[in-house]
Amino acid sequence: MAAQTEPEIVLYDLACTKNVCFSPVVWRIRLMLNYKHIPYKTIFLEFPDIEPTLKGLGIVPAESSSGYKHKYTVPAIQHVPTNTYIMDSGPIAQFLESTYPDPPVPLTSELGREVEAKTRALLGPAFRTSVMPREIGILSPRAEEYFRRTREASLGHRLEDLLDPDKEEQVWGAVGDGMRAVGELMRMHRADGPFVLGAQPSYTDFFISGSLQSARVVDEGVFQRNIKYPGFKEIYEACLPYMEKKD
Predict the structure, then answer these.
(1) Cα distance between the two ends of the chain
(2) What is the pLDDT of residues 25-34, one digit of tens each?
């Protein structure tokens, strides 16, 4: 029996009752780790345990240019060989790309920025309506209490109020044309391969497929709403080989 490779990365992920990754921002990093074949292990944290755990590791949130201090969040990683801790998907992606450059994952491109911005604008409201209130179905009781309390405080109403069938249909109906248009952007290089930039994946592909996989773990119906649009389905299926390690 072959000896197991010692993990070089400890990945702090968001816990759910399915015991798999469901956070879209953590999926972006998990996809990079899987694609680059970087050995890692996962530590799942419940919502209320994220801040005390990361504080205990000595991680300090970065401040924005305006002086606003960002919150404690996952993903966070420990790079075991250097005992370096990093929080947030952007800085982690930059660290992984500089430390493990082969195979390369382009972190940004003009087309990628356009695809990500338009996808955020379209799917943000739709996921807020359809995914967020359904997340409580895959959380432990204490994580559900935390999630409900914090989200309902900002919403000003119960999470379930978002799931009015008529309103949900209206939200998805309103994004249809935009989804088709951004799907065509994703397919600009389809003659060269299934990814946004062609033959090889970029961070934009992991952004898209991670969001879709997150929706799928929470609710298959929401996932199906997305992949009916050309572009989204192709990128998701092309990234499936890098989703096999999900826990």
Answers:
(1) 22
(2) 999 999 999 9
